[in-house]
């Protein structure tokens, strides 16, 4: 029995370590559970949460989530919530590691927005983005990737006109809600959560070979910035097909000019320029590349 437990602990932390080392410096780790406690975490309903002190190492841990009473099928079980200000970017990836329970239990991952700025989440007054249900009917641990876009997250709000522009403001935290399905075998349960992070989506579309003009939705200048979100500096890269006069300007989300990064003649080929936002507040910014023939605008997110 001791060998089985030891093997489980080793496998789990090996998985955590491999995932952690794979994250780039630009990754926003929302909670790595390395503090040996649960700062900013709250829970409610029929569940409780504690830190995994019995299965810990020097760098990583996880939160144990368990039901306080026997749970029945088709029941709302409860929520856990990490309250922390987060500036997320559309099309990035939210990664969460969850432990299975080998029963018909599901979890939805939610990004919460405090629309009325009263420092609490209220379903009647605030907004959330919610993932599709994630089945926990497996054993061991799995890492789940959720694209931060309209294909994988739906908007839950009683406020008219809400859309994905909500990502231009800070989220107030991450929430996980648990629900049993019709095949749930009545019982208490214990699951876990570990290493919640937002990371860039590295899928980059390729330009059509032999075509000087990009396909619809692609970038004429192969324009991108990395990292994104960033703090406090990001590098903008772009390609000029011909020698041109170039102006690169940064604007805040209200359209006010905040910086001019390039303004002059440049040769054809690949170029980079850095934007340091040490003196600017967190939020959404736009950068515009303009030549005599083309103008292109991209969004970036400063997350301090």
Features:
304 residues; mainly beta; Jelly Rolls; Immunoglobulin-like; 2 domains; 6-stranded antiparallel sheet; 20 strands; elongated; disordered N terminus
Q: Low-confidence segments, ≥5 residues, pLDDT <50?
A: 1-25, 203-216
Number of domains: 2
User: Might you state the CATH topology name of the largest domain?
Assistant: Jelly Rolls
Amount of beta strand: over 45%
Number of strands: 20
Q: How far apart are the termini? A: 46 Å
Mean pLDDT: 84
Number of helices: 1
Helix and strand string, N-terminal first?
Answer: HEEEEEEEEEEEEEEEEEEEE
What is the oligomer described by this structure? single chain
Helix amount, in percent?
under 10%
Please provide a brief summary of the model:
The chain is mainly beta and 304 residues long. 7% of the residues lie in helices and 46% in strands.
Tell me what the structure shows.
This protein is mainly β. The chain has two domains: 2-199, Galactose-binding domain-like (Jelly Rolls, Sandwich), CATH 2.60.120; 224-302, Immunoglobulin-like (Sandwich), CATH 2.60.40.2550. It has one helix spanning 2-22; strands at residues 28-31, 41-45, 47-51, 63-67, 76-86, 93-99, 105-113, 127-131, 134-135, 141-147, 153-157, 171-180, 190-199, 224-226, 233-240, 244-252, 257-266, 269-276, 283-290, 295-302. Strands 2, 5, 7, 8, 9, 11 and 12 form a seven-stranded antiparallel beta sheet that branches. The chain is elongated. The model is unreliable at 1-25 and 203-216 (pLDDT under 50).
């Amino acid at each position: 029995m001791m060998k089985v437990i030891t093997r489980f602990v080793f496998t789990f932390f090996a998985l955590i370590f491999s995932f952690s080392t794979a994250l780039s410096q630009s990754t926003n780790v929302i909670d790595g559970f390395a503090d040996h406690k649960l700062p900013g975490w709250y829970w409610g309903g029929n569940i409780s949460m504690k830190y995994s002190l019995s299965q810990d190492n020097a760098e990583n841990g996880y939160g144990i989530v368990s039901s306080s009473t026997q749970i029945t099928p088709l029941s709302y079980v409860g929520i856990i919530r990490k309250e922390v200000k987060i500036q997320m970017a559309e099309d990035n990836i939210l990664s969460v590691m969850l432990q299975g329970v080998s029963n018909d239990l599901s979890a939805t991952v939610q990004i919460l927005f405090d629309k009325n700025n009263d420092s609490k989440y209220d379903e009647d007054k605030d907004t959330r983005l919610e993932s599709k249900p994630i089945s926990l009917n497996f054993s061991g641990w799995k890492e789940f990737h959720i694209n931060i876009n309209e294909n994988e997250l739906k908007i839950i709000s009683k406020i008219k006109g809400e859309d994905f522009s909500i990502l231009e403001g800070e989220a107030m935290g991450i929430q996980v809600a648990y629900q049993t399905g019709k095949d749930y075998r009545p019982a208490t349960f214990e699951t876990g959560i570990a290493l919640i992070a937002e990371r860039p989506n590295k899928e980059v579309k390729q330009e059509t070979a032999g075509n000087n003009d990009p396909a619809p939705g692609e970038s004429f200048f192969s324009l991108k910035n990395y990292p994104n979100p960033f703090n406090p500096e990001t590098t903008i890269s772009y390609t000029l097909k011909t020698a041109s006069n170039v102006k690169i300007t940064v604007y805040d989300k209200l359209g006010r000019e905040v910086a001019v990064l390039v303004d002059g003649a440049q040769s054809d080929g690949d170029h980079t320029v850095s934007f340091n936002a040490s003196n600017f507040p967190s939020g959404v910014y736009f950068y515009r590349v303009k030549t005599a023939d083309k103008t292109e605008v991209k969004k970036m997110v400063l997350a301090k």
